[in-house]
C-alpha cells in the first residue's frame, strides 16, 4: 500500500518592516485555504514567517529587537493559523523568532532567543520544535557589508539538535519528519543527522538574499538560486528523503530575497518549483515508499558507512593544512 501525502510550500512574498504580524498571518491563511483546495495535507511556511527579516537591521541593544520575537506559540496573532489548520485538517510548519525563559549552562533560567520552527499536526498539537544551529552572518555591525546579516547577534545556536519525529500526518498513521532552517541546508552534516534517524520528509524555510551582501569576492547572481537548490537536492539524494524548502521572497525595505521554493524527491529531483518571488503555493504528491530504494541500496547506511574514518567531521571545527609532499632521499 503506497504511503502517499500531498505537501505544499506556502511561499511568502516580502514582509515590510512596517507590516504587522496580523497582515502576514492573513496572507498565510489565504495560502492555507488555497493549499487545502488542492488537497494538501501538510503546508510548509518559511523561516521567520511572521515578520520582515529583521537580522538585516542593527540594534545597539539586542532587547530593541525583541519586538520581532514571539513570547508564546500560539500567540494571539498566530492562533488563527492553528484554528484554520484544525478546521481544515492540515498540518503546518512555521518558522518564527522565539523568545523564552529557559535554563542555560548554569542551570539558572534566563531570557533566550532562537531562530525556531515548529511542526503542528492537523489537530493543532505541536509535534516537534527545532532551533536553528547554523547561524550565518556576524554578531557586530559590519561596515564593509552592503546589508547587515546579524543572526549571530540576535540568536543563540539551537540547543535541540536535529530531531526527527514519527507522527500521523494526512491519511498516514506515521511519517518520519525532521526540520532544519535556511543556512542549515548548506551543511551536509545537518542532512546526514536527519538521515541517520530515517527522516522521510525534511521541512525547511529560508530567507536568502538574492545578491551577495558581503561586498567581497565575485558571485554571479544566478548562482544564488542554483546553490539553494543544489544544497536541497544533494541533501535529499544522499539521505533518500523528500524535502519541502519554502522561501520568504521579494524585496523587503529595498533588500531582495530569492524565492524559487522547491519540493524535492529522494532521487534529488525537483518535483515542484515556485516561479514567482511573491505569495505562491506549490504542491506535490509524495509517495514516501520511494525513500526505500535509496535507503536499501546506495545509501544503506548500515552496510556502507565507515564512521571510524569520519572522526575529523566531529573532532575538527575548521580545516587544517595538509602535510607538504617532499621527495624522499634515496634509501
Ligand atoms: N540566509 C542565507 C542562507 O543560508 C546565506 C545566508 C546566503 C549564506 C547565501 C550563504 C550564502 O540561505 C539565512 N537566513 O540563513
How would you characterize this protein structure?
The structure is a single chain. This protein has a single domain (4-315), classed as Carbon-nitrogen hydrolase (Nitrilase/N-carbamoyl-D-aminoacid amidohydrolase, 4-Layer Sandwich). The chain starts with a strand and ends in a 16-residue tail after the last helix. A hairpin with a 5-residue loop joins β3 and β4. It is 22% helix and 27% strand. It is globular, with a radius of gyration of 20 Å. The protein is of the alpha/beta class and 331 residues long. The strands form 3 sheets. It has a 6-stranded mixed β-sheet. Strands 6-7-8-9-12-13 form a 6-stranded mixed β-sheet, covered by helices on one side. A two-stranded antiparallel sheet has the order 10-11. Bound molecules: D-[(amino)carbonyl]phenylalanine (ING).
CATH architecture: 4-Layer Sandwich
**Number of beta-strand segments:** 14
Task: Give me the number of helical elements.
Answer: 8
Overall shape: it is globular
Q: State the end-to-end distance.
A: 68 Å
Percent strand: 25-35%
Which spans have pLDDT < 50 for at least 5 consecutive residues? none
Regarding CATH, which class? Alpha Beta
CATH superfamily: Carbon-nitrogen hydrolase
Question: How much helix is in the residues?
Answer: 10-25%
- Rounded mean pLDDT is 97
In sequence order, what are the helices and strands, one letter per element?
EHEHEEEHEEHEHEEEEEEHHH
